Amino acid sequence: MRLFVTLLMLIVALGLMTGCEDEKKAAQAPSEEEVHAVAEEIIQMPADPVVQTPAPPAAAADPDAIVVTISGTKIIESQVSEEVEKRVQARMKMIPPGMTVPPERIAALRDQTRMQVADMLVDKVLINEALREKNITVTPEQAEAQLQAFMKENEITPEGMAEQIARSGMTMEDVREQFLMREKVNALIAAELGEFSVDEEEARAFYDENIQQFSQPELVTASHILLNTQGKTDEEKAAVRMHMENILKRAKEGEDFAALAKEYSEDPGSKDRGGEYTFPRGQMVKPFEDAAFGLENGKISDIVETQFGYHIIKKIDHKEGGTRQFEEVKEQLIARLTDQKKGAAWQSYQQRLHENADIQWSAAEQARRETATRSMQMPAPRPAPAPQPAKGEQP
User: Which is more confident, 96 or 4?
Assistant: First the structure.
């Protein structure tokens, strides 16, 4: 599942990958907190867990209508709407179970995504034009090499990656296009902005001034198997518990826990990675948290009941909280600060590209953009939620 979310983040990432900090985040597996942050942009927590609302397709529009013209290059409705729908559907797949999306929130998501996709398509035109002016060529082979490196780093085969991507409703060609644009941006950065560097002294100064950023909470890594009991009768719950007792017996007799989780767990957020989560105190529902933190490494719990159902938990690792030392984070921090410098320089350059181009939005699109902008600036008030477990509640 973590790789699936990584790939979704890679494709759903709004705007171009610049080779800077945002790109790096997109190419890494996000944490469970980040997945929930994405979800909470577009959802309301229900009083009771309900089935996720599917995203209905947008109303049909003239596919040949001009959305925007960039120095003579036209972007039409079909180019925009197809990309918007892919991204909306992919983002909907990131919503954790037990959360629902009201139709009006889906409409707002689609409007905001449309504005961001249109901006991205404009940027693509500007970047391609800048590359042509400078006689810089970026080939699909260069992008393919980076894609292969990505798969190697994440230990996934081409077949496995295609399968993961298919779950999102995207295609491998979508992924290749993202990698190609990333390489184009990197080539433009190298030609126009040069190299960026941060030395150890600069990194140390940042560390000392922002020491609170390097604190780490107490963390547990555990795998679990969930059998859902929501909405079931007492008789049905008894049958589920009996099934869980059989799974627990097999786990305690030495069967591979991750394999059992992949086969039996009903938690879609973790089963594909063998039921594994890493979490601090306060993130999971209390019975689950108490059991996980109370186990010794390598041990398997008895059956734990939560409002979601029956769990069995295997504790993998336990890290005490504290502040990470500079030497421990130095290389990562230098890379991060370098990316920040690179990102700031790219944003300035990107702004100049826009200022030097003749960008003409259609009247209809301009009106939609103004409406979407107001919506983002003035979010609709949300009702006070009923008492709910913390993020990551369905472990």
Answer: 96
More confident residue, 140 or 2: 140
Q: What is the CATH number of domain 218-320?
A: 3.10.50.40
* Residue 241 dihedral angles phi and psi, to the nearest 5°: -65, -40
Which residues of the chain are in CATH 3.10.50.40 domains? 218-320
CB atoms under 10 Å from CB of 381, counted, come to 5
Q: Which residues contact 315 (CB under 8 A, 6 or more apart)?
A: 220, 221, 222, 292, 295, 296, 297, 298, 299, 301
d(CA 230, CA 307) in angstroms, rounded, equals 7
Enclosing H/E stretch for 306: strand 304-306
For CATH 1.10.4030.10, the residue range(s) in the chain are 2-197+331-377
Instruction: State whether residue 46 is helix, strand or coil.
Output: coil
Comparing CA positions, the residue from 145, 199, 179, 165 lying closest to residue 16 is: 179
Where does the pLDDT of residue 260 fall: very low under 50, low under 70, confident under 90, or very high at 90 and above?
very high
| Phi and psi, residue 184, nearest 5° | -65, -45
Do residues 214 and 268 touch, judged by C-beta distance below 8 A? no
14-73: pLDDT as tens digits: 333 333 333 333 333 333 444 444 444 433 333 333 334 555 666 668 899 999 999 999
Ramachandran angles phi, psi of 278, nearest 5° = -120, 130
Identify any residues that bridge with 75 across adjacent strands, giving them in sequence order.
68
In this structure, whether the domain defined by 2-197+331-377 belongs to CATH 1.10.4030.10 is answered with yes
